[in-house]
Here is the input.
Amino acid sequence: MPTRRSDFSRDVKVERNPVVYVVSDSMGETAQLVAKAVLSQFPGGNVGLRRFSHIETPDAALEVMKAARDQPTMVIFTVIIPEVRDVIKRQADKHGVPLVDIMGPALEGMEQISGESALLEPGLIHKLDERYFQRVEAVEFAVNHDDGKNPKGYRNADVVLLGVSRSSKTPVSMYLANRALKVANLPLVPEVATPPELHRVPSGKIVGLTISPAKLAGIRKLRVRAMGLPGQTDYSDLSRIQDELVYAQTLYAELGCEVLDVTDRAVEETAALVMNLVGNPIDPGD
Here is the structure.
């Protein structure tokens, strides 16, 4: 277990054998990986490994370095808080403690080639990891609530997309899910009643998609052809499509939701417009 600052009084202790201290103002996982890679090259097994996480103040750093100077210790550190780095480096120089700075040279090099200054904020990578897992969760939600599945989950959705078949509901749902938005979608068919759960969703979270009848007829004809079905079908019949779109518009009015025309729009454009409509615009850099 990594040692936190509040544990120093009982956990910073002198070892008889050589030891590697892993010190970080965040979790210390990066430095620990480097330490383990180094230790693997020394199979004698007599070198210990201690990890000190969240070393965020000069006093905390000083306590760790006091222990390091009293035994054969190498310190591998990933610290970006300037005043904490200074204590570690000064104490190591003063007492001859071998020191490996993982982050410092990389930060300096990046500042040199980019012309920007580092944020110097500990733990940013874990915030990025958290964003990744939010996206994974959102994608799972979109899959589990695609095409009308699991309407009881609508209450947990950030957005519920409505539309007739082939109005780009699923592609837009997945695009938004990859931006960590939980999206459900429901296909609208005049002969099939909408689930009661839909009518309990706030109208501000619902977006109804519509499309030009002629455009949709063309899309559906291609779909029918791809499925190997012969000739004209109700699915691609223009009159039937017009009836479906009228039904959808009537439902949108009943729900009081926003309506978005997706005719000739790319999925990315539609997704951005959806998020603007529900008050959660996509970051252009996302």
Notes: Strands lie at 19-24, 48-52, 73-78, 99-101, 159-163, 183-187, 206-210, 258-261. The first helix runs from residue 8 to 11.
